[in-house]
Each structure stands twice: as structure tokens, then as C-alpha cells.
# Entry
Amino acid sequence: MIDVVKACEKELAALPVVVREDLADALARLDSGLGLAMPLSRPMPDIGRGVHELRLRDRTGIYRVFYFIKSHGTIYLLHAMKKSTQSTPRRTIKLVMKRLEEI
# Structure
């Protein structure tokens, strides 16, 4: 099951169509029980246990979608953004942590 945090819905809608299609493919694999690995998905233990970052790109840029897999298999989409710096900004990490606490 995939659940989108309400605040993330608008962020996902703002992603380019090609990126949303790639995201849908990745989420379908996750939802069917397959694991994703680098370079597509990277664990983010600094944010929280079970939090991962989907790494997507198209010709317009690089995008990240943060998700959390709960122990019973539910996948929560927490935050989506266009990447503009080498490292993940501290404010993004705090935002994802806040949304994680809410679920």
C-alpha cells in the first residue's frame, strides 16, 4: 500500500511528467515487494530508520522523493523536490523528519 502525506501531494504534482512516470514504476516495484538499490534508491539513516531517497532525473534536472517503509509494508511518500545542491539541505532533512513524526 502506498500512502502520500498530504503536504507531499502538491510537490509530486509539480514534478515533470517523465519523472512522475519513473516514480510510478519505482513505487510499483516497491509495492510488489521488490527492493530498490543504488543508484535508484538510497537509505537515509540520518533521517530515520526505514527512510529512503528515490533518485530520479530527466533532461530538466535531478529530483528526489523521500519515502518511508513501515514494518507492515506501507510505503509513505514524505517529500519531493528538485535537487539543486550536492548535499541534501539541512532544512529538507528537518522537513522530512517532521513529516515522518506525523505518521
Summary: The longest strand covers residues 61-69. Residues 2-102 form a domain with the YaeB-like fold fold (CATH 3.30.2310.20).
